[in-house]
Structure formats: C-alpha cells, structure tokens
Amino acid sequence: MIVRIFQVVTRPGKEAAFSAFFHDTAIPLMKRTKGLVHVIPGAPLPDRPREFCFVMVWENIDALKAFVGEDISSPHIDPAEAELVESRSIKHYQFVESHLLL
C-alpha cells in the first residue's frame, strides 16, 4: 500500500472559502474514490490557519495512478480549488503495518 500526504496552503483571506470546498467537495470526493483504502482529512490548527491536509492510504501504486495519472507527484486539482490555493506539497511512502499504538 502507498501512503500519500497532500498538504495545501491557502491564499491569504481564502481560508473560509477553501474550508467550505474541503468539507463539502474534497472530503466526500476522496471518501468515494476507488482504490483508496483510508483517508484522514486534516483541518488547520489556530497557529497555522491556512494549512489543510489529506493523509491517504492507497491499495497500490496502480490505484493511485488511476486517480492522479502517471506522474504521482502531480496534485489532483479540482477547478473549484485552483484559485484558493497558494501552494501544495505531496509526499509518498510505503505503508508499514504496525500493531503498536504509541
């Protein structure tokens, strides 16, 4: 399985608009995406009010590519979010099974 961490920084003053998009569009879209095993959406903390994220666990690299295309470093951007976002970052990791919770 593949872990994908997708972070977004909104444009100044666009926090509320992006939050509405995040909750009303992005989270429901991700929850119904084929090949996605688990998604954890993250909303901003008070000290970083412009930062949002998704931590996703994909079945495999092929499932991820079916969603984003061959270049997995590219973000999947909904047209509704394009003007709200200042920057994005994406990182990928191999999922490691663990039975320990710290």
Automatic annotation (TrEMBL):
SUPFAM superfamilies: Dimeric alpha+beta barrel (SSF54909)
InterPro entries hit by this protein: Dimeric_a/b-barrel
Official protein name in the record: ABM domain-containing protein
Organism whose genome encodes this protein: Aliiroseovarius zhejiangensis
